[in-house]
C-alpha cells in the first residue's frame, strides 16, 4: 500500500474513532438511548480500531463503509428543505418572469401596436432593473438581513404581476416590468446566500443548486404558459404576465413564518435568536461546535480585516476576498458569455432552420428546449455533491464549447450551401426595399426586414425571391406570392423568415441539444452555487451583489448585441465567438476555481490565500482524498474514495 493510502486509512480510523467517541459522549450526556443498530455499529468500529488493523486496506475500507452507513442514518431535518424550497420560489419567479415575456410580446405587439423599440424596452427594462437592484440588494442584505430582502422581492413580484395584468397602456406595462425586474435582482442575489447559510455543509451545493433548478423550471413553465395562452388572442398576455403573482404570494406568506439566517444574526450580535434558529435547522442536534466556529470566525475576521470603510473597499484591499470576488464575477461573466440566453432566445429560429416551418410548433418546440434545460439542471443537482463544483463546471464548460462549435458549424455549412435567389419580382408599392439586393438566402435571412419565398423541387429550393416581411406577422410576406398564408400553402409555396432551408440544418439542431445537455448541469447552476459560498460572512452580501450584477449586465450585453453580432459576423461567426469565450472561461476556471465541496463556509476563505491562478490547484479533494462530513452539528474529516456513498 502506498504511503499516501496508508496515511489515509490511519487518518480515517482516527477520525472515525474520534467521531464515534464524540457521538457516544453526546448520547450519554443527552441520556439518549440511541438505536440498537447504531450502538452495534459503533462497538464494532471501535473494536475494529482496537484490533489495530491499520495496515489492512480491506478492513479500513469495510470500516469506512460501515461508518458511512451509520452517518447516513443521521438524517437532515426536513425544515431545511422546507426553507430552501420556499426561498427557491424566488428562483422560479426569476425564471418565469424572464421567460414569459417573449410569448406575451407576440400578443401584445398586435393588441397595443408596439413597435420594435417598445418591444425591446419591455424585455431589457426588466434585465436592466435586475442588474441595478442586484447591486443595491447587497447593501440591503447587509443592513436588514436575508429574510426582509426575500419578503421585499416577493412583494415586488406580486405588485409587478398585478400592474402588468391590469395594464391599459404600454407605459404602465413598462412600469410593471421594471418593478418585476427589481424583484428579480434582489431575489437572484439573496436566495443563494440564504440557502447556503442555513444548509448543512454536505448538502449546501445541492440545496443552492435547487434554486437554479427552480430558475430553469420557471423558464419551462413560462414557455408552457406562453404556448397555452397564445391561443387566446385577446388578453392572453394578461394571464401570462399576471400568473406569477401566485408563487409570489405563496412565498411572501411562507416567509412571514420562516426564520432569518442564523449567520447574519450572529454577525449582528443577536446570538440567542441565532442559536435557537440554528438548532431548529439542525433538528435540535448539538450545535455548539458549529455555533462557536461561526462566532470565532466572525471575530477573527473583524480583527484581521477591520470593520472600517465600505465593504467593497475592504474586499478589494484584502487579497483572499479580492481573489474570491474575481473568481465569482468571472464565473458569472463566462456563464453569460457562453451564450445561454441567445441559445434559449433563438432556439425557435434554430429549430425552424432544421425544417420546422410552423410558428406554433416552433413555440412548443421552444418549450421542449426549456424542458431540456430544466431536466439537465436536475442532473446538476444530483452531480454537485458527487463530482464537486470544480469538476462539474470544467466538464460542463468543455462540453458547452464543443456543442457551440457544432452549432456554429451547422450554421457555417448551411451558409455555404445557402440557396440562390432566382426571382426578383417588382415591388408593387414602388418602395425601395433592401431585400432586392440579396442574391443568396443567407443575406436575406440575416436582414430582419426580409424573408425568402420559394418552392421545393424534391429537396432543392427553386423559384426563390427575397421579399419584405409583413409588419404584423413574420409568418408571411408583405406582398406577392407569399403574402396570403392560406393561398401560398395551397400552391406549394414556402415562406422562410430568419432561416434558410438547407440539408445541414440538423447539425445546428444537434448542437443546440448538446449545448443544453452540457450547459445545464454545470455552467447554469455553478456560478450561483459557488458565489453563495466563497465569501466570508462580512463580504458575502456585497460579493454576491457584485457577481449577480455582473451576470445581469452581461446578460443584457450578450442578448442586445446578438442580432448585430450576427449581422456583422453572421450566425456562425457569433457562435464561434461564444465558443472562443467558453474556451477562455475554461482556462480561467481551470486556474482559479478551488473545490468548495463539503467545506464549512468558514473554511472556504483559506482556499483563496494563495496567488489567484494557483487557487484552482488547491483542490484538497484531489490531493488528499479527504471529504468533510457533517454529523450532528460537527464536521469530521473522512477519507473518501467513493463519494457517492455520502449522502
Ligand atoms: O443560471 C441561469 C440559468 O442557466 C438560466 O437558464 C439562464 O437563463 C440564466 O441567465 C442563468 O443565470
UniProtKB/TrEMBL annotation:
<feature type="transmembrane region" description="Helical">
    <location>
        <begin position="173"/>
        <end position="195"/>
    </location>
</feature>
<dbReference type="GO" id="GO:0005366">
    <property type="term" value="F:myo-inositol:proton symporter activity"/>
</dbReference>
<keyword id="KW-1133">Transmembrane helix</keyword>
<feature type="transmembrane region" description="Helical">
    <location>
        <begin position="569"/>
        <end position="593"/>
    </location>
</feature>
<keyword id="KW-0597">Phosphoprotein</keyword>
<protein>
    <recommendedName>
        <fullName>Proton myo-inositol cotransporter</fullName>
    </recommendedName>
</protein>
<keyword id="KW-1003">Cell membrane</keyword>
<comment type="function">
    <text>H(+)-myo-inositol cotransporter. Can also transport related stereoisomers.</text>
</comment>
<dbReference type="InterPro" id="IPR050814">
    <property type="entry name" value="Myo-inositol_Transporter"/>
</dbReference>
<keyword id="KW-0472">Membrane</keyword>
<feature type="transmembrane region" description="Helical">
    <location>
        <begin position="149"/>
        <end position="167"/>
    </location>
</feature>
<feature type="transmembrane region" description="Helical">
    <location>
        <begin position="361"/>
        <end position="384"/>
    </location>
</feature>
<dbReference type="InterPro" id="IPR020846">
    <property type="entry name" value="MFS_dom"/>
</dbReference>
<feature type="transmembrane region" description="Helical">
    <location>
        <begin position="207"/>
        <end position="233"/>
    </location>
</feature>
<feature type="transmembrane region" description="Helical">
    <location>
        <begin position="324"/>
        <end position="346"/>
    </location>
</feature>
<dbReference type="InterPro" id="IPR036259">
    <property type="entry name" value="MFS_trans_sf"/>
</dbReference>
<feature type="transmembrane region" description="Helical">
    <location>
        <begin position="78"/>
        <end position="96"/>
    </location>
</feature>
<keyword id="KW-0813">Transport</keyword>
<feature type="transmembrane region" description="Helical">
    <location>
        <begin position="116"/>
        <end position="137"/>
    </location>
</feature>
<feature type="transmembrane region" description="Helical">
    <location>
        <begin position="239"/>
        <end position="258"/>
    </location>
</feature>
<feature type="transmembrane region" description="Helical">
    <location>
        <begin position="545"/>
        <end position="563"/>
    </location>
</feature>
<feature type="transmembrane region" description="Helical">
    <location>
        <begin position="504"/>
        <end position="524"/>
    </location>
</feature>
<feature type="transmembrane region" description="Helical">
    <location>
        <begin position="396"/>
        <end position="417"/>
    </location>
</feature>
<dbReference type="InterPro" id="IPR003663">
    <property type="entry name" value="Sugar/inositol_transpt"/>
</dbReference>
<keyword id="KW-0812">Transmembrane</keyword>
<dbReference type="InterPro" id="IPR005828">
    <property type="entry name" value="MFS_sugar_transport-like"/>
</dbReference>
<keyword id="KW-0325">Glycoprotein</keyword>
<feature type="domain" description="Major facilitator superfamily (MFS) profile">
    <location>
        <begin position="83"/>
        <end position="597"/>
    </location>
</feature>
<dbReference type="Pfam" id="PF00083">
    <property type="entry name" value="Sugar_tr"/>
</dbReference>
<dbReference type="GO" id="GO:0016324">
    <property type="term" value="C:apical plasma membrane"/>
</dbReference>
<comment type="similarity">
    <text>Belongs to the major facilitator superfamily. Sugar transporter (TC 2.A.1.1) family.</text>
</comment>
<dbReference type="InterPro" id="IPR005829">
    <property type="entry name" value="Sugar_transporter_CS"/>
</dbReference>
